[in-house]
Amino acid sequence: MTITAAQLDFLTSDAGIHLLDQLSHEDLGEANTLPLLTRLRRDHSGDEAGAALALARLRLAAVGKFGADASRMFFTREALEQSSDPLIRRWRAAIVGAQATADVCCGIGSDALAFAQAGADVHGLDIDPVRVALAGLNAVALNVRSTFEVADARNGVPNRDFIFFDPARRTESGRRIYDVEAYQPPLSLAHTWGASSICVKLSPGVDKAQLGEFAEGWRLDFISANGDLKEANLWRMEQPGSSLRAILLTEDETYTWDNLGLHPDVPLREPQGWLCEPDPALIRAELVQDVAAMHQGALLDETIAYFTTEHKSESPWLRAWPIEAWMPFNLKRLREYLRAQDVGRVTVKKRGTAVTPDVLIPKLKLKGSNERVIVLTRLRGQQIAMVCLPA
Asked: Is 183 left (phi over 0), alpha (psi -120 to 50) or beta?
């Protein structure tokens, strides 16, 4: 959904506000779309009714990221999808504190408002006039003091102590942009700014090899929220430190693991009693060997981010499953084993194999009452299947 200036004028008018309030009490399910629009068009144009319905649905979808505040905020679908996880917004805002802050490419203002709520003096800028208008409306809705302007960051940014930079990583058609210099604006622009502290929001799948010019004086954080890898942050550092970190955020704790560049030797070994999967932030921060060594584990393959241990390891950085059996991957043998164990439901995990769950599960022809986790991976380069009990 995109919002035009005319639609925004309507949505913020008395009639639009009344309509949005009305929709907040309606069944907004897709099956009710036609009856809703038919009824709304008695008093409003099709464009007005469609814009209000779209925003009402986005407000529902935004509750997971914005809680009760979502019911008063303004979104586009693209901006909502790209807005930061609430745990990350809170963590980053706590780091920034009360610094004078510029939010470059502020979008609808979700990060800017988090900074402002934490005490920062925030000025946001974006090249899109509608998004700037949405950011201003969201600031009013949340009673947060911040300013926003339409501006092209390539022409310069405000002189602030801290700059947060969130360049567009998708084209107008929605296609992902993988080249950091094809971002809008390009990542290298951050190198030209004089702020003592800068944070650039990147895709968690960013190619680290493209960040060569940021090797000196910058740190790359990979950030997981409750075990889901959400984003990467590139920070200009004021003090020397590790240049690569994993961050794990939960509702109650923040866990940090620095990559110091010296990794312990970890043996390769056949599967032991427990399969361990490191948090994805650890994997992206190249810390698999470190966490495996800490838990006296052994790798299955030098290129695979699983390891196994004799005993269960308790750590917020790990998920672990007890290994019931393992075998070289063979469909017939795996199917016979699962039938012998009366398995009727499986979850399939995979690393280092082209076999997909959608292809494998129908071929297993499962009939039973038990459940297992099937892990397809490699042991010293050879395809294997591990059968694990549910965690």
From this structure: beta
| Burial status of residue 338 (CB atoms within 10 A of its CB: 0-12, 13-18, 19 or more) | buried
Does the model's pTM come out above 0.90?
yes
SS3 state of residue 79: helix
Q: How many CA atoms does the CB half-sphere of 137 hold within 13 Å?
A: 21
Whats the size of the chain, residue-wise?
391
C-alpha–C-alpha distance, residues 316 and 106, integer Å: 32
Strand partners, 308: 275, 298
The pLDDT of 110-129, averaged and rounded, is: 96
pLDDT at 238 over 80: no
**CA 310 to CA 324: how far, in whole Å?**
13
317 φψ region: left (φ > 0), alpha (ψ -120 to 50), beta (else):
alpha
Sequence ranges of the domains in the chain: 5-61, 80-258, 274-388
Tell me the C-alpha distance between 335 and 365, whole Å.
8
Cα 142 vs. chain centroid, distance in angstroms?
Answer: 24
CATH: 1.20.1250.20, 3.90.25.10, 3.40.50.150, 1.10.510.10. Which one for 80-258? Answer: 3.40.50.150
Give the Å distances, CA to CA, from 282 to 94, 211, 388: 22, 19, 23
Beta bridge partners of residue 278, listed in sequence order: 318
How many Å apart are CA 311 and CA 349, to the nearest integer?
21
1-4: which pairs have CB atoms within 8 A and are 24 or more residues apart? 1/54, 1/55, 1/58, 1/75, 1/76, 1/77, 1/78, 2/76, 2/78, 2/130, 3/51, 3/55, 3/74, 3/76, 3/130, 3/134, 4/130
pLDDT at residue 174 in the model:
80
Give yes or no for a contact between 125 and 185, defined as CB atoms under 8 angstroms apart.
Answer: no
Reported confidence tier of residue 185, pLDDT bands at 50, 70, 90: very high
CA-CA distance, 359 to 350, in Å (whole number)?
12
Kindly tell me the number of DSSP H helices and DSSP E strands found in the chain. Answer: 13, 16
Tens digits of residue pLDDT in 120-137 = 999 999 999 999 999 999
Instruction: Report the pLDDT value the prediction gives residue 354, as an integer from 0 to 100.
Output: 92
